[in-house]
């Protein structure tokens, strides 16, 4: 399964009133709840595709190290290509889907409201987090349900 993963608002709750704790690699710490949830999802050797606005800031190997320092060991990691700042997450994903026809299970884990405008065949795979809470056990259950009942 492919997992399209955002960072801010998913792994790092976005609380405007609070500066996130930075780890010694200079990147924010992930929430403990999100780490536990993501570990359950990727336990099945899934491929993570980063969609975060931070995706181009680090190499794939650096991203793997960032995740590993936070307790998540990712074997298969990719990222969407870098794009101009004025492109929405929806547009980024639609561009990727246009050149990568989806034949298997996939899920999009993101807090970006532009994804509510995805075509139905992609929106059905959207698990939308609350930006101030991030990824939780409830989202894991929704993802498991999605993979069992893809329609």
UniProtKB/TrEMBL annotation:
Q: Name one Pfam family in it.
A: HAD_SAK_2
- Could you tell me the superkingdom of the organism this chain comes from? Bacteria
What is the name of this protein? FCP1 homology domain-containing protein
